[in-house]
Specification:
The chain is mostly helical. Helices cover 79% and strands 0% of the residues. The chain starts with a helix and ends with a helix. This is ABC transporter permease.
Length: 290
């Protein structure tokens, strides 16, 4: 297994794909971070202008203490992890479509060993992408936010952990889809269409039907709930007394509408990734390699 992992690692580092997707990932995270800080500062300035004094008195916290940047950070993580998912999707689909995976399958003890080696390598890449996302997101937010809007040291650590975890899970999901669909373009289009369009439409339908809890058990809803729930929890820890109705609104703003606790959201998405990977393994196991 060690030799297989080393071989898979060489495959990813000898091509330009890893940095070709890492660059736009960093740029997107930085852009979201800058925008998050600017919008948060605008909101705080507006809230401190005297127009919403009643809200401040009600919550018991002045506007400059509202860590509103947390909501934008959650959204930034959610959208930025699309790139490691695409990176993972190309792990097997590209090799299957070009038949470069033949040597791997013929020299590995079994196809299961080969797929597990790929998964381990892409878990590592998922963690790397997650750290890069958090680094550039943090730079953008810090550059445009006041200190009162930023999380404390513990909050930064928690956000970094869930960002890395989210990136790893999204990469694993992508690997599974890549094994299911041995066509690079098909796998990428399907993932983008589902995560950016289809499930968002489902979210609107479920909200209209007044069953928002179902959202938290869908793939995109659960992975968004992982980061969104943490952001909301960190915000509420310093936001004073917040009614339940407002909490629901805050969760929706953070992209965690209908989501469960962060750890449960992570388990739900891990289940989806496991199902997709099992399906990809079954397809690959029965596929003739020439």
């Amino acid at each position: 297994m060690g030799n297989l992992v080393q071989a898979e690692l060489r495959k990813t580092t000898t091509t330009g794909l890893w940095w070709g997707l890492l660059i736009p990932t960093a740029v997107l995270a930085l852009g979201w971070g800058l925008a998050t800080g600017l919008l948060g500062q605008f909101f705080v300035d507006f809230a401190a202008s005297g127009d919403v004094d009643e809200v401040s008195d009600f919550l018991g916290v002045t506007p400059d203490q509202w860590k509103v940047s947390l909501f934008g950070m959650a959204r930034a993580i959610n959208i930025s992890t699309i790139f490691p998912m695409i990176f993972g999707a190309m792990a097997i689909s590209g090799e299957l479509s070009r038949r470069t995976i033949t040597t791997t399958f013929l020299t590995a003890p079994s196809r299961v060993h080969a797929l597990l080696a790929k998964m381990l390598v892409y878990v590592l890449w998922g963690a790397i992408y997650g750290l890069v996302i958090m680094l550039f997101l943090g730079i953008g937010v810090v550059a445009t936010s006041d200190s009162g809007q930023l999380p404390d040291a513990g909050g930064w650590v928690m956000l970094t952990l869930v960002c890395v975890l989210s990136s790893i899970l999204m990469t694993m999901f992508g690997v599974g889809v890549g094994a299911l669909i041995p066509n690079v373009a098909g796998a990428i289009v399907l993932l983008l269409l589902y995560f950016l369009v289809i499930e968002n439409v489902l979210h609107g339908v479920l909200a209209y039907l007044e069953v928002p809890a179902v959202i938290g058990f869908l793939p995109n809803g659960s992975i968004n709930g992982l980061t969104g729930s943490v952001s909301v929890d960190l915000f509420l820890s310093s936001a004073g007394v917040v009614p339940t109705e407002i909490e629901d609104v805050l969760r929706a703003i953070a992209g965690a509408a209908g989501a469960q606790d962060w750890w449960l959201s992570g388990i739900v998405f891990l289940g989806w990734a496991g199902v997709v990977f099992a399906g990809g393994w079954a397809v690959t196991q029965s596929k003739d390699i020439t």
